[in-house]
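User: I've been trying to design a sequence by hand for this structure and keep getting stuck. Would you show me what you'd pick, starting by listing the structure so we're on the same page?

Assistant: Good idea, let's start from the same input. This is the structure you sent:
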């Protein structure tokens, strides 16, 4: 099993992404941030996570650049955690996890929340992997290669 410090420097983007945001609490904090949760107390209330653990996770997300801390929008002395562009880019990952969970982790007749678009109030389309030409791709249709990041 690879050590965590090795994953942060691995050539595999999946390993690096998991090292950064693969923790369940981190992903649930990001999910709640998409639902416009901004304050420590709101995250704590929704997640039921121990305060010390929540503090660590929020600090981690700020250090990674996924969340930014800013003064409260209502002018109070509180601070708010807001998604950065990097954080907003996690949205398709969260939606993909949601859709996989909807499809495979609920029994017939169980209730679950659906993600709807605001304009049409319709369930969002299932995320799929496609080639640049639009062809739907499966794992066997793809391969990997190592390239240099061009920043």
């Amino acid at each position: 099993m690879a050590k965590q410090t090795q994953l942060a420097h691995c050539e595999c983007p999946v390993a690096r992404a998991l090292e950064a945001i693969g923790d369940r609490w981190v992903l649930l904090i990001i999910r709640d941030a998409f639902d416009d949760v901004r304050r420590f107390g709101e995250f704590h209330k929704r997640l039921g996570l121990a305060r010390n653990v929540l503090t660590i996770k929020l600090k981690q997300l700020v250090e990674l650049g996924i969340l930014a801390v800013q003064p409260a929008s209502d002018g109070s002395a509180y601070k708010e955690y807001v998604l950065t562009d990097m954080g907003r880019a996690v949205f398709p990952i969260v939606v993909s996890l949601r859709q996989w969970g909807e499809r495979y982790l609920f029994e017939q007749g169980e209730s679950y929340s659906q993600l709807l678009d605001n304009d049409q109030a319709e369930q969002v389309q299932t995320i799929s992997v496609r080639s640049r030409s639009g062809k739907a791709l499966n794992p066997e249709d793809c391969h990997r290669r190592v390239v240099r990041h061009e920043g």
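That's my pick for every position. To get oriented when you compare it with your attempt: The chain has seven helices and two strands. Helices lie at 4-7, 13-21, 24-34, 40-47, 51-64, 85-88, 91-104.
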